[in-house]
Fold this sequence. Notes:
Blueprint (H helix, E strand, L loop, with lengths): L1 H14 L2 H8 L3 H15 L4 E3 L4 E3 L1 H28 L4 E8 H6 L1 H11 L3 E8 L1 H9 L5 E4 L8 E16 L18 E6 L4 H13 L3 E7 L2 H9 L5 E4 H10 L2 E4 L6 E10 L6 H10 L2 H4 L2
Parallel strand pairs: 3-4, 3-5, 7-8
Antiparallel strand pairs: 1-2, 5-11, 6-9, 6-10, 6-11
Helix pairs in contact: 1-2, 1-3, 1-4, 2-3
Amino acid sequence: MIVETLKVYVTVVEQRNFSRAAEILHLSQPGVSLHIRNLEKEFNAKLLHRSPKWVKLTEAGELLYVRAKEMLNVYESVKLDIARLHDDVSGTLQIGASFTIGEYVLPRLFASFAKQYPEVEMGVFIGNSAQVVEAIRDNNMDMGLIEEDIEAHDLAVTPFMKDELIIVAAEGHPLTLSDVVDVERLQDQVWVLRESGSGTRAASDRFLAQTGLRIERSYVFNSSQGVKEAVFSGLGMAMLSRWVVKRELTAGLLKEISIPGIRLERNFSFVRRTGQVPSRANEVFSERLLTLDNHFI
């Protein structure tokens, strides 16, 4: 079907590499090459200059890429309209999620969605917010769930719920002995931080900059679970989503450091490529996300 061939062509162009396109499409590299040769034969024009490491569009190739994107959008729009007509929720849904959302929010939502719509084949990639956004831009994921606000012309970003960030430390840390702690008492403390590119790290950096806090020393971990375990072991204190430490707070394993007059919030948002026509499964999952504040917490 010509639609499949156009999908292969668009993926090759956007990945600028045949092998990466083959991996994304679950095809062999010779299979991808055959699709491109068939297109060049169909249009009697060379579409791509290619080497083992790169792909460059010809003038004809650039024209076809623009038109192929338009045709694929029309095709997906028709599929979506017909699916709505029959209330058919099926197909595939590949979700990229930041660590906080992917490890502490998404599993419960994922399970309930899969139970209601068993015909949808779902997969999840978990990374930091920057990695999720990159996967969306590379067309490797249908939707991304991230924990920071971003503005970009090529992305449609929709907030779906509020997240509260809190400062925590292990039981016995000097700052946990008071019910509330003045922000000045946070000076010259040891902090456990997420890595650069993480939404949680971005929020921590903003807080430290806005309050003018000095750090005695910091340690960096590339997951919220790692930060949490380090804090529990007494390495230092950290800023984390309440979702991440909910059980530990209830069990008394970690203590919240409350600062008067300061409430730290951010948006959880879902991200799609601008102009992307969502599948029916993507559309229904997005609708589910927008209702979370009402019944999920």
